[in-house]
Amino acid sequence: MHDLPRDRDALLQSFRSARPGTSVRPEDLPASLRVPGLIYALVYRDHITLILYHSPDTDSGFRIWKSGMPADFADQATSIPFVTRFTYCDDYPASPANKWE
């Protein structure tokens, strides 16, 4: 847990020039980001999305934010201040509570 902020920052830095939403396999992530059941991760400029469930219509998992969660997201808070839980369904309209990015 104590390595999570350092590993998050290092991963965000290493993907700084990559296309936002670049997919990363679990085995290519630092140990602190390899949560049980992880399917893959997506790296954005300000956060890392960990996908733990995937179906044709729905994805869910956690987002690990570099700083506070932006106002246009309505993820569920967790006990870790910079980590949120999300569920996205492409059958529902886009909203702060149903946001993919």
Protein architecture, described:
The chain is mostly beta strands and 101 residues long. Helices cover 11% and strands 32% of the residues. It contains one helix and six strands; from the N terminus they run H-E-E-E-E-E-E. It has one helix at 4-14; strands at 22-24, 40-43, 47-54, 58-65, 76-77, 83-89. It has a six-stranded antiparallel sheet. A hairpin with a 3-residue loop joins strand 2 and strand 3. The longest helix has 11 residues, at 4-14. It is globular and about 35 Å long. 15% of the residues are buried.
Fold blueprint:
Elements: H1 4-14, E1 22-24, E2 40-43, E3 47-54, E4 58-65, E5 76-77, E6 83-89
Antiparallel strand pairs: 1-2, 2-3, 3-4, 4-6, 5-6
Identify the strand order in the major beta sheet.
1-2-3-4-6-5
Q: Tell me, rounded to a whole number, the average pLDDT.
A: 94
Taking pLDDT < 50 over at least 5 consecutive residues as the criterion, the unreliable ranges are none
Biggest β-sheet description:
6 strands, antiparallel
Number of helices: 1
Give the termini separation: 24 Å
Radius of gyration: 13 Å
Query: Would you report the number of β strands?
Result: 6
Helix content, binned percent: 10-25%
| Portion in strands | 25-35%
Topology pattern, helix = H, strand = E: HEEEEEE
Structural class of the helices, strands and pairings?
mainly beta
The geometry reads as globular
